[in-house]
Amino acid sequence: MALPKDFLWGGAIAANQAEGAYKEDGKGLALVDILPSGEKRREALWNPKVALNTTYDHYPSHEAIDFYHTYKEDIKLMAEMGFKVFRTSISWPRIFPNGDEKEPNEAGLAFYDDLFDECQKYGIEPLVTLNHFDTPLYLTTEYGGWRNRKLIEFYERYAKVVLERYKDKVKYWLTFNEINMLLHIPFFGGGLVIEEDENEDQVKFQAAHHQLVASSLATKAAKEINGENFMIGCMLAAGEVYPYSCHPEDMMKAVEENRKQYFFIDVQSRGEYPSYTDRMFKELGVEIEMEQGDEEILKQYPVDFISFSYYSSRLTSADPEMYKGATSGNAFKSLKNPHLKASEWGWQIDPLGLRVTMNNLYDRYQKPLFIVENGLGAKDELKDGTVEDDYRIEYMREHLKEMIEAVKDGVDLLGYTSWGCIDIVSAGTGEMKKRYGFIYVDRDNHGNGTGKRYKKKSFDWYKKVIETNGEKL
């Protein structure tokens, strides 16, 4: 058997894409709560001033799939599939509505008590992200988001409250979701609204420094609260960047592009800024403002494991002319790889790239890995109470095969949680029609529908995969 007996199979969602109840029980507004769906969402994500000053017809996060009220029913279905682990996030503004309060919102804390108790009832380990694109909106409008060093203090206070509260219910924690997304969607990743006359790189990398210090302070708090009983991880939006050709300039370009994503994990895992950032920052005109003690806290409290999302590999070239045919998958600009097929949303499908990525991550850090997002977003058709999603099964089967090969290569892998194990609102487009789940949710892009849950064909397939610990794919 390739996978260990205690391998953590499961699925993943995010509070801001699933819970809804956006003002219930004292919750404050999150970044996502001002975003619309469809084409308007992309404009709002890259120009958040538009979103801050526009009233839209529909805000998908306000109701989402109503997980806030249906979690018992949904976790029961996950338990039926045999989940060993369930990745979700805590909504920061549900605990601290504005983000800068001194005392938490008890009603928000009580909800997650109930949620984690429900997981425990079925023997499911929660894997909890502290900040999954869920910075309180008030911290953007009043403080400028993560560009402001004060957010370190606010985040640390929030982290200490939830780590202490759930220390007997949650073992696995992630500090920030897809932390490198700060460079690609700065509003999502850091609550940043960047002015035209600003050095964008300076703002983003300074915000990144604040998040990296905050991540280490959360790790410090975790160790002080619960010692070795906690496992604290970082989280990367991963996917190896391939060179377009074997031309040395393309090879060097790929090295540089890979470093841009690994930079965050280099700091979180190794505890210091890598040497290549000296030149990178100089060429970008970036000067990181550090305070006394920052370097020490980074060094003393690295993460225990590396978690990551993987949807596709990427392709780069040193020739700018090549980018006229570029594609975009999960916010990353990439050339079209002629050897790969693509999903309906243009995300290139590369199962072997998962094995490549896993090997490179493990070779680089020698820390346990955890695949916490992977899956296929597709338009599903509900027919006779189910969805014949053979395309999803095929996608996942091929990726799981390569995952197992990577374990055979010697990679230490803790577990696998497929993304959107129940259909949720898409982060990038705000749509419901882009579905990832094993469970169909009867809601459309405009929030219409019964909300009823239906098992897809992939539900029984994944159940068998878990039962056999990956022996039967």
TrEMBL record:
| Catalytic center residues | 373
Keyword Hydrolase applies: yes
Instruction: Give the matching Gene3D superfamilies.
Output: Glycosidases
Traced from the root, the source organism's taxonomic lineage reads: Bacteria, Bacillati, Bacillota, Bacilli, Bacillales
Q: What's in the keyword line of the UniProt record?
A: Glycosidase, Hydrolase
From the UniProt record, which GO molecular function terms apply? beta-glucosidase activity
GO biological processes: carbohydrate catabolic process
Can you name a GO cellular component term? cytosol
Native source organism of the sequence? Pelagirhabdus alkalitolerans
Enumerate the Pfam families for this protein: Glyco_hydro_1
Q: Please give the superkingdom of this protein's source.
A: Bacteria
Query: What is this protein identified as?
Result: 6-phospho-beta-glucosidase
Q: Which family does it belong to?
A: Belongs to the glycosyl hydrolase 1 family.
UniProt-listed InterPro entries: GH, GH_1_N_CS, Glyco_hydro_1, Glyco_hydro_1_AS
